Amino acid sequence: MQPAVTPEMRSLEPEAATPSDVTPIPLQYSPMPATSHHYEMVDGVMHVYADEGSTNNLFEVSAAAAWMLLLVSKARPSVTVFL
């Protein structure tokens, strides 16, 4: 089995297809605008909502994970569990 392009042939390829593919300042920081997400801790589990008035939880905890959290919290109440 032979490769379609040998390493010697690849060494002749340009590094970027166009100059715009290369970032002129690679470590430049541009701040992102703040989101309106609302975070709430309920029974040791973080819930994320789209905004403060929303009731739709964006990241639901599965029933299996919730059951495991219940078992761990009853067995060792001093242990914090992160999902």
Number of helices: 2
Describe the strand arrangement of the main beta sheet, using strand numbers.
1-2
Q: Name the quaternary structure.
A: single chain
Overall, the morphology is: elongated
SSE arrangement, N to C: HEEH
Given helix and strand content, the structural type is alpha+beta
Could you provide a short overview of the structure?
The protein is α+β, with helices and mostly antiparallel strands and 83 residues long. The protein is 20% helix and 12% strand.
Description:
- By secondary structure, this protein is α+β, with helices and mostly antiparallel strands.
- It has a domain at 34-83.
- The protein has helices at 7-10, 63-75; strands at residues 38-42, 45-49.
- The longest helix is centred in the last third of the chain and has 13 residues, at 63-75.
- It is elongated, with a radius of gyration of 25 Å.
- The mean pLDDT is 74.
